[in-house]
Each structure stands twice: as structure tokens, then as C-alpha cells.
Specification:
With about 450 residues, the protein is of the alpha/beta class. It folds into 3 domains: about 70 residues, no CATH class; about 250 residues, Aspartate Aminotransferase, domain 2 (3-Layer(aba) Sandwich), CATH 3.40.640; about 100 residues, Alpha-Beta Complex (Aspartate Aminotransferase, domain 1). It has 14 helices and 18 strands. Strands 7-13-12-11-10-8-9 form a 7-stranded mixed sheet, with helices on both faces. β14 and β15 form a beta hairpin. α3 packs antiparallel against α11. The longest helix is centred in the C-terminal third of the chain and has 22 residues. It starts with 5 loop residues before the first strand and ends with a helix. Bound molecules: pyridoxal-5'-phosphate (PLP).
Length: about 450
């Protein structure tokens, strides 16, 4: 006897007689709390239903007059899935490419043990846009730093000559590289690693944006250090932009000590910061770079590592792989994610709309200097930090923004990150800024 029956689409999608369109926000919450893992605490009393335009979601909220039903409201998407939707929700060019390839081109699903014709398109596009020799496709974001970690270690042993099993990977304090055991082993946030130990050995942390600390670590242990694996701008830490001379000096130090510079561009890549990849803002070129999020055009999880021949060249058959890494649909979507970034000038758009948003934040800081402490950002990766006071609470700000039809989320107690799609209109940026202004005024 089958114990599950599934029919329908969208609101008519019905599982064991329960139709999605009939569920209230409270019922959705109950199902998630009872049947899911409690690894997130989503905003309460709101359930996203569908897309209205590239930066507007339709969300369901409790009906104040009848709790057994819901109302629908527009929500401006100020977060775009943590920068996975840089090209905008349901970008028409990418959606058309997917539909055309599935229905007309009869796209197959095959693994890497047999060649498929779309891999060539992806590799040509990805090496061209990153200006790197080679690219290895993966699936989710965390796999990019994970693979850079592996590549760096093997390069360390086979090319640099580090004694077996003694390689060190340097990471930065405050980093976020994802949730795998390797990524949380680099983390200094106890919420991320507590009771998941023992951590992966061979990791040293150094203060971010402190060139002297890095130099003294390199002087002391440089012969055993394979790579400095680091975000060009720290996203989850609250949009921390290093000093203008930090990356050129890091790059010079890495060259001096024959240490790889491996940049995690999962959040900062794909035009988010006003350049195709954030390291370009600082005039440096890493040896390895990892991309994810918007590499999948806002539709699919796609990630990859791009790098120099000498480093990616250490891979051998059997040493690395992934069933869905670079499979035909992923390859097509990633190729089109790159095409849209270039054809729609997303980097220029990030700069224009980013200047507008940061201008509004700075005006807010001038008006409320006792509330707003700092405004940070590059392109459309922006944040404002409030002073450390109980009433200046980032989560409270997110909840209040939701009431005003804007979705943005705190990164830490007092920092709110705003990173909408790069296709967002000037009017929508103003609506986000107006809502934030209104909330800050009310605190
Ligand atoms: C810099 C960076 N690296 C890696 C990741 C992990 O990506 P994913 O959540 O897709 O595994 C993130 C996610 O926020 C990130 O910001």
C-alpha cells in the first residue's frame, strides 16, 4: 500500500489530501516545525508564494479578520536569496533557455563518465569570464571552498613540496564558507561548529584586513602554508570591505612565500559588488576562485572553482567529482547566467543602484547619527550597522520591514544587509530605502 499520494501543481499541489493553497501561514509553520530540522528561524507569519516581477514576491500573511485564511501582499525582495538571484527572479532569458533546452533540445541527464556537448559551452564561457585557465563545476556554494581546500592541499604537497600531511590552510576570522565539516572547521562562530567536532586539522585563523598579522604568520609558518582561503569582502560577517591596499599587499605576500591566494567569491561574485568578481575591484588576481549562488542564474544550484593551470592541474581521475556538477542542465543554466551578467550589464547596474542605496543609507546616518553607526558596501552588497543598544535590534528591523513590504535580514544583532537583485529598478530601491528610513525613525 502506498502511504503517500501526490497530485497537482502550485496551489493545487496536494499531498495526502492536503492542498497547498488551503494552508495558512500558521499551518505552514507547524508542518516545518514538526517535520523539518530546526536549523533556521524564518521570519514569522509570512510564506512566499510566487514571483510578481524580478524583485517582487507575492507573500501570504495571516488574515487579521479571519485566522483560518490568509491575505496576499507584495514583498520587495531586498535579499534575493543571499545573492543567488543577481539576475532577478525568473530572469526571462534564463527561463527561456531552460524551457527551450528541456522541451525542444531534449536535454539529457548524464554523469561526467560520458561526455555531453554542453560541457564545452560552459567551460569556454566560464574560463573566459573568470580569465582563468581551467574550471571545475560543482553544485552548491560550500563545495567551492571545499574544493579549493582540497586543491590547495594537493598543490601544497605535489608542487610546493610541503611534507606529507603537514599542510596549513589559512582562513580569516569572521569568515563564512558554508556548512560542511571543512567549512565549519574554518569558522570561529560557535553556533556553527559547537558539538560537530573534531574540527579538520591544519587550519590557522588570522585577523581579516590585518596585513601585519598575515605577514607574521607567513614569516613563521610560510613553508607549510598552502593557501590563504578568504572572501574578498566578508558577506555574512556584515559586509566587511577591507582597506584599499589590503588585497594588493596580500597578493604580494602570497607570491613572496609561494602561497596560493584562494578567494571565495560565492557571495561576492557574479557582478554583486559592481565588478564581475570582487577581487577585480582591488586590482588583484587570485590563483583559485570559487563561485556559487548566482552562478546558477537564480534557478539551480551551480558552483565552480576556476584557477590556474598549475593548481587545477593537480586533479586526477577519481580524486574529485560530483554526479550533478556540470550536468547538462547545470551547464546550460551556468552558461546563461554568465551571458545575462554580460549582456544585461549587471556590474554597471550594481554600481548605479548601489550608489543610490548607499547614498540613501548615508543620508539616514546623517539624520539619525545616534542610531546608525556605519554604512558599508560595494555595488549592491550593502549593509548598515546600528549602535549597540537593545532597541537597535537587527531582527526587530527585519520584522518591521516585513510589515512595510520589504524583505531584508539582519546578519548580526545590529547589522542589516540589503542585497537585492541587480536588475532592481530605481523606484524599488527608493521603496526599500523609504521603508528602512521609516523603521529607523520609529526605533
Ligand atoms: C562566501 C560564501 N561561501 C560559501 C557559502 C555557502 O554557499 P551554500 O549555502 O550555497 O552552500 C556562502 C553562503 O552564504 C558564502 O557566503
Amino acid at each position: 500500500m502506498p502511504n503517500v499520494s501526490i497530485t497537482g501543481f502550485g496551489d493545487n499541489l496536494t499531498v495526502n489530501g492536503i492542498r497547498l493553497g488551503d494552508l495558512t501561514p500558521a499551518q505552514h509553520e507547524k508542518i516545518e516545525k514538526q517535520k523539518g530540522g530546526n536549523n533556521y528561524s524564518p521570519l514569522e507569519n509570512v510564506v512566499v508564494s510566487h514571483v510578481k516581477d524580478s524583485s517582487t514576491l507575492i507573500a501570504r500573511k495571516p488574515n487579521p479578520n479571519d485566522l483560518s485564511s490568509y491575505i496576499e501582499e507584495e514583498l520587495i525582495d531586498g535579499l534575493c536569496c543571499y545573492s543567488a538571484v543577481n539576475q532577478g527572479q525568473l530572469n526571462q532569458t534564463i527561463v527561456d533557455a531552460v524551457v527551450k533546452h528541456l522541451t525542444e533540445e531534449k536535454l539529457p541527464t548524464v554523469p561526467r563518465s560520458i561526455r555531453h556537448k554542453y560541457m564545452g559551452a560552459f567551460l569556454m564561457a566560464a574560463t573566459a569570464i573568470t580569465d582563468m585557465d581551467r574550471v571545475v563545476p560543482k553544485v552548491v556554494g560550500v563545495e567551492a571552498p571545499e574544493l579549493m581546500f582540497k586543491l590547495s592541499r594537493r598543490w601544497g604537497y605535489r608542487v610546493k613540496g610541503i611534507p606529507k600531511d603537514e599542510a596549513i590552510i589559512v582562513a580569516a576570522k569572521g569568515n563564512f564558507h558554508g556548512r560542511s565539516i571543512t567549512a565549519i572547521s574554518m569558522s570561529d562562530d560557535p553556533d556553527a561548529y559547537d558539538d560537530f567536532g573534531p574540527k579538520v586539522p591544519g587550519i590557522e585563523l588570522v585577523e581579516y584586513n590585518n596585513i601585519d598579522a598575515l605577514e607574521s604568520l607567513f614569516e613563521k609558518k610560510g613553508e607549510r602554508i598552502a593557501a590563504y582561503l578568504v572572501e574578498p569582502i566578508q558577506g555574512e560577517a556584515g559586509v566587511i570591505v577591507p582597506d584599499a591596499d589590503y588585497w594588493p599587499r596580500v597578493s604580494a605576500l602570497c607570491k613572496k612565500h609561494n602561497i596560493l591566494l584562494a578567494m571565495d567569491e560565492v557571495q561576492t561574485g557574479f557582478a554583486r559588488t559592481g565588478a564581475h568578481f570582487a577581487h577585480q575591484l582591488f586590482g588583484v588576481k587570485p590563483d583559485l576562485m570559487g563561485c556559487g549562488k548566482a552562478a546558477g542564474g537564480g534557478l539551480l544550484p551551480v558552483s565552480f572553482v576556476a584557477g590556474r593551470d598549475e593548481v587545477i592541474g593537480v586533479l586526477t581521475p577519481g580524486s574529485e567529482g560530483s554526479t550533478f556538477g556540470g550536468y547538462p542542465l547545470g551547464a546550460v543554466v551556468a552558461t546563461y547566467a554568465i551571458k545575462v551578467m554580460v549582456d544585461e550589464n549587471l556590474a554597471d547596474k550594481a554600481n548605479e543602484r548601489g550608489d543610490q542605496l548607499i547614498g540613501r543609507f548615508n543620508a539616514m546616518k546623517d539624520r539619525f547619527p545616534d542610531k546608525v553607526k556605519e554604512v558599508r558596501g560595494k555595488g549592491l552588497l550593502t549593509a548598515f550597522e546600528m549602535h549597540d543598544a537593545p532597541k537597535l535590534d537587527g531582527h526587530h528591523v527585519s520584522v518591521e520591514l516585513l510589515k512595510r513590504g520589504v524583505y531584508a535580514k539582519e546578519t548580526h544583532h545590529s547589522t542589516v544587509r540589503v542585497a537585492p537583485a541587480l536588475t532592481i529598478s530605481a523606484d524599488q530601491i527608493d521603496r526599500i530605502a523609504d521603508a528602512i528610513d521609516d523603521v529607523i525613525k520609529s526605533l
